[in-house]
Amino acid sequence: MAAMRGLCVVIILTQLLICCSKSSNGAGDSSGAPTAQVTLAQAERGSIAETIAIFGAAENGATSQYVLSAPVEAILSSIDAPVGSVVQVGQPIATLTPSPATKLGLAKASADARAATDAYARARRLRSDKLVSDAEVETARASAQSAQATLASLSARRQSLQLNATDAGYVQKINASPGDLLTAGAAVAIVARTGDLRARFGVDPALARRLAPGQPLTIKPAGGGTTLTTQILSIDPTTDSRTRLASVFAQIPTGADIGAGEGLEGRVSTKTSTDAVTIPYSALLDDGGQPYVFIVEQGVAHRREVQIAAVNADHAAIAVGLRIGDLVVTQGGTALVDGMKVRAK
């Protein structure tokens, strides 16, 4: 029995020592206040250019296409470079032959030129015999010149019935089939020049009014690829009735691996804040449109509402609410409440 009583005393003393130890190291804090683990960053002085993402597509530029037309009424005899063909300068694209009407017109022009030339020669002879006036000779000369010019024009157009590429590019469209009769001036083929693409972005009209030609712009294919640096060419503030957006145009650099119709993502700076209080963008939180951050002082998190001057993908410039050197929570802030104890990771 004595041994049993001694064992009980030892157990009781041990429990008392454990309780005292917990109380002394804080593990048994009766307040039960939770402690959150967070990542911190310091507010610093810096400059931020606010960038806006805009979306659009590549399209052929204003001078990116040219049309090959029938010089006279003709028949399409062959297509030498079908749609999609890559062509170089001087390469045949289509071959035409004169239509019956063109052949008849050329024969008539040739006969008219001969007749007018003969009439002019006869008028000169008659003038030497003083049978006609100088005015009549001059009229005959003018008629002969006009007939010769008409014949030369028809002959030259007949010689140009092989339609060749005038610039390197690719055949975008053929408007006829072999055997079709083409009127004079009819478009036979449309060729797209290589290296003449522009980007067209749809933007909110309010944003369009804040942009200007010559402003730097970065472009990359929406599906991924190399980011290109270019400039805004022009801005069309007219709102599209279907999309309700204005248009911003930019030149795509020559040699870019981008095709017409390809989706594009652009980024353009709208304003810059200099000598500002800057923090990582990840520190910003939002409560019904009111931005705020958590700052940490002596291990306790405090909610601080802020006003944003500018933002980009990585940082934010704060106009009101923070000072240089403030510690802000960049990770773990969504789980915090004002006054919660925190511990930096």
What this model shows, in words?
- The model is unreliable at 1-14 and 16-31 (pLDDT under 50).
- With 345 residues, this protein is an alpha+beta fold.
- The chain has helices at 2-25, 100-128, 134-159, 205-208; strands at residues 35-42, 44-60, 65-69, 74-79, 86-87, 92-98, 162-164, 169-174, 181-182, 187-193, 197-203, 216-221, 228-236, 246-251, 263-280, 285-287, 290-297, 300-305, 307-311, 315-320, 327-331, 341-344.
- A hairpin with a 2-residue loop joins strand 16 and strand 17 (290-297).
- The radius of gyration is 42 Å and the shape is rod-shaped.
- It folds into three domains: 35-50 and 273-344, conserved putative lor/sdh protein from methanococcus maripaludis s2 fold; 53-62 and 195-271, Efflux pump adaptor protein, beta barrel domain (Elongation Factor Tu (Ef-tu), domain 3, Beta Barrel), CATH 2.40.30; 65-193, OB fold (Dihydrolipoamide Acetyltransferase, E2P).
Cα(first) to Cα(last) distance is: 55 Å
Give the strand tally: 22
Structural class: alpha+beta
CATH fold-level assignment of the largest domain: OB fold (Dihydrolipoamide Acetyltransferase, E2P)
Strand order of the largest sheet: 2-11-14-13-12-15
Strand content: 35-45%
Task: Give the mean pLDDT.
Answer: 84
Number of helices: 4
Number of domains: 3
Rough outline: rod-shaped
Q: What is the fourth-level CATH superfamily of the largest domain?
A: RNA polymerase II/Efflux pump adaptor protein, barrel-sandwich hybrid domain
Poorly predicted runs: 1-14, 16-31
Helix content: 10-25%
Order of helices and strands: HEEEEEEHHEEEEEHEEEEEEEEEEE
Rounded to the nearest angstrom, the radius of gyration is 42 Å
Q: Report on the biggest sheet.
A: 6 strands, antiparallel, barrel
CATH structural class of the largest domain: Mainly Beta
Q: Tell me which CATH architecture of the largest domain applies here.
A: Beta Barrel
